[in-house]
Write a structure and sequence with these properties.
By secondary structure, the chain is an alpha+beta fold. It has one helix and three strands. Strands 1-2-3 form a three-stranded antiparallel sheet.
């Protein structure tokens, strides 16, 4: 009996990175991040790189748990 294989999990995001600066000369710049899902238009913003990476790692972990717990995948 052949094994059924499921389609590989994948996500496509548009990543936007920008620098925010304070108004004063002494203010430090902060990098901001935004992921946009082009399929549904949803956006998620992140105040720092650590938050962005954490969210991506959580998504990969959920995808590894199985289809009932992972995000939906389009099967074209």
């Amino acid at each position: 009996m052949p094994l059924k294989s499921k389609a590989p999990y994948y996500r496509i995001y548009l990543l936007t990175i920008w620098e925010e600066r304070g108004r004063g000369k002494q203010d430090l710049a902060a990098w901001r991040f935004c992921l946009k899902d082009p399929q549904n238009g949803q956006q998620r913003g992140f105040a720092n790189l650590t938050a962005l990476v954490t969210a991506l790692l959580e998504e990969v972990a959920q995808a590894n748990e199985g289809p009932e717990k992972g995000s939906s995948v389009s099967k074209d």
